Each structure stands twice: as structure tokens, then as C-alpha cells.
Amino acid sequence: QTKMAAPPPRPVKSAAKPWLKGQTDDLASLANLDEAVLLEELRVRYDEDKIYTYVGDILVAVNPFRSIPLYSVELQQQYNDSVKSAAAPHIYAIADQAYHSMVRTNRPQVAVISGESGAGKTESAKYMVKQIITLCHSGAEGAALERKIIQVNPVLEAFGNAQTLMNNNSSRFGKFTQLLFNSRGSVVGAEISEYLLEKSRVVGQSKGECNFHIFYYLFSMDNKAEFHLSEPSAFQCLGGQLWDDNAAMYKEVVQTMRLLGFSPEDERMLYRVLAAVLHLANVTFEGSEAAYLKDETPLRLACELLDVEFAVMKEVLLSIESIARGETIRRQYKVAQAYDCRDALAKALYSGMFGWMVNSINNLLSPSHQAHKIAYEIGVLDIFGFECFKENSFEQLCI
Using an 8 Å Cβ cutoff, are 272 and 229 in contact? Predict the structure, then answer.
């Protein structure tokens, strides 16, 4: 009879490491991830001042609405060709990944910054650009370019931002900043493109919202009477009130424009167009069949500022000319059509002026192509914030 040996004891499985809320830097590594888990993780991390969290290749940033010491020079140095898992999630890590991927692959890179209005997208874009310029070791040239990019922000925000129900300084256009590099990976210039400017805001806003900031700054000019401006309440397209620091904001924009190279003639031209848009929005019509001007004064003031003949402008707003079989036919607008024409003209004037200003800024930021050959580029898209209302405009659909 053979005695069987007892089987060796089975190894005891160690207990699974408990999941600690808020301690996971990359939520994609969790065994179970749904909306509820994601939101709870972000909440716990936010309470611990951990405003950055990865979800795979995506960095989620939660606006703390206060100053947190996360952007020191020492931290910038920590995120330099670093391994993703070696440091806490940070906007600097995304900038580091973009820059070194560009250098290694010889291919352009892009970062898309999206989110709700007031989420901190524009500030994130600033930190991203700052870190990329730091990484490329461009010395004094890079530092000078960073200063220029920072300098343009007050001007772009004055003309492209507005107070909304969700955010007092909401970007109402998309800004695409391209950083341009030479073959050594040093930054040599930048170019800004604007997308989807919310032109409808020029002629009207939702209840409780305001027009673009720059319109309100005009009322802090010493010579506002030259442009036939009195008070914001005199203009139909201006909702809200002047801010307490309106005069200080106006001075900052003027100083910045001069630093950027805008001449006094350029400034005056911009003010004339802006004031003309305000007067144009005050033009009203009446009439049962064909529309006619209820009061000629607003249109006369707009024509004076634009240096356009009153009779020509009046004809354009009240009728349309078409050619059929070689014969010219002029058809009078109805009241609703006249208002549509007026609004289209005001929006086109503002949009054209905004585009001209962005092109002027690009002349300051662009590299000398004779001195620098562009080899690489990194794009940072700061799209304007989405807002969800009971009734949403076409612009919200576009976002």
C-alpha cells in the first residue's frame, strides 16, 4: 500500500490593492469608468487642489477660480522630455509631449483646448505656449516672442470677448496660434488665425448679456463727442452697463495697441468704424409696403464716420438692384428685409475690422522668412466656450 504525499499548500492570493478615490492620475487605467466615477474622481482631486487629470491621451483641467502654485520655473523644468507616468498630470506635460513629438517625428503637432465658457481654456493656452517656448531654448528671441504673444491678448480680448450669462470675459471667437520653428527646433515666429467670430452679437444679445468689450471702452475716451457718442443707453445694440474699471481697461488696450505698432491713425480709424457700427444699429425703418427711414440722423452719423455718401448708403439699405436680360431692376425692401440688410452691414463691418486687426498683429509676430526657414510648427486651438441655454443661437450650434 503506497501512502500518497499530501499536496503542497495552495498559495494564498494577496488582497487586491484598494482603490483610493482621487489617487489615480489616469482614469483610463480604472477597471470601471463611467460618467459617475469620472465626475466623482474629478471632484475628489479638485478638493485636494489636483486640478489636472488624464483620461488616456486627454488632459482634463478643472478651473480652480483662484491662484494655485502650479506654474513655477522648477515645475517647468520637471516637465522636459519627461515620461508621462513619472510626474503628476499637468498642462506642461502636454506641451512637453507636443514639442518633443514634433522634434522626433519631424511632423507638425496640434493641441485642441475645448470646454464650457469660463472653464479656463484661454489661460491653459497661455501656459501651453509659455512651456513650449521654454522647452525650445530660444533664448532672448523666444522670450521676446512670448512677450509679444502675451501683449496681443488684451487687444484680442477687447475686440473678441464679451460678458455672457456664464462668464464676464467669454471668448466669442476661436483662436488658433501657430508657433513656427526652424530646423534646430528653436521658435522663430507665430501666426494667429481667428474662426467663427460671433458676429450676431454686434447687433443684439440675449437678455443679461453684453456686446463686445471694446464698444463699452469707447465711452471712456476723452474725445468721444468727436464720434457722436454720449452714453451706452443711447444705443440699441448695447446691453448691460459700463464696468467699474472701464476706463482702466480702455487705457490698457490703447497702451497695448501702441506697443504692438498701431499708429494714432490706425486707432482713429478703428474708433470711427466702431462708432459707425453703433450708429448703424440705431437705424430704424417703417412702412407698410416699401420700407423707409424712420429717422435719418443715425444713418447720417454712420455715413459721416465711414466717409460714405448718405444717398448711396440710404439706397443700399432700402432697395436691391438686380439685372435680368440686360435690364436693371431695383426692388424696394420691406421693413424686415431692410433690418436684415442693416444688420448684415454692421456685422460685415465689424468682422472685416477684426480680421484686419488680426492680420496687423501677425505682421508683428511673423518671422523674417529671409532669415528663417520654417521647418516645424505646433498649433494651439483655443476654441470659444459652449453655453447651453433654453434657446440656443446658430453660433452655439457651430461651436
Answer: no
